[in-house]
């Protein structure tokens, strides 16, 4: 008997719990996103949403930004005359108006000034284009001379390279003839031989220069003697 009573009470308790859980179970869509919860009721708002909220500027708890003219303009633009704001108080003062005009002149030039600036920029671009075209024309006129000069420099470089190779081959041949075997151009023997040959060449150049100077002096002296004899006193 007691067991049956306890069983009926347990069944009733289980049913009550399942009903309460169903009442508060969330409704989930097929994407798995929670949409709403049954049995939830938000507290009613203490503000009157039917009438515009006009802050009390005399209240110390009112924020300062709600006491500014900017906020008054926003309220008047949203609610109009229902905001209780006098539209004449929303116009800027003379000092503010002058500041606005000066700022517009600085950052928003007039149409005439914009056209003048565009004309100046167009003139600058045209001048740059003409200068560039003039430079290109001048360079094109110089092109034949530049090409000829480049070809001459290339030819001189080839000839110089050929002369250097011939000189190197000649020096290697002389070194081989002097030492009786092939000599490495990087060896000390070859470098010493080059120094000796340079000394000999300098001596030869000095001798040739001295001989040429002596010959020139002799020719000058002979010419001076001939002139002196030709300009001697005439016989009576």
What does this structure look like?
- With 236 residues, the protein is mainly α.
- Among the domains are: 2-37; 58-91, no CATH class.
- The protein has five helices and two strands.
- It has a two-stranded antiparallel ribbon.
- The longest helix has 69 residues, at 111-179.
- The protein is elongated and about 145 Å long.
Secondary-structure topology with pairs:
Blueprint lengths: L1 H23 L1 E3 L5 E4 L31 H11 L14 H14 L3 H69 L8 H43 L6
Antiparallel strand pairs: 1-2
Keywords: Cell cycle, Coiled coil, Mitochondrion, Nucleus, Ribonucleoprotein, Ribosomal protein
Organism: Coilia grayii
GO cellular component, one term: ribosome
Features:
single chain; 236 residues; mainly alpha; two-stranded antiparallel ribbon; 5 helices; 3% strand
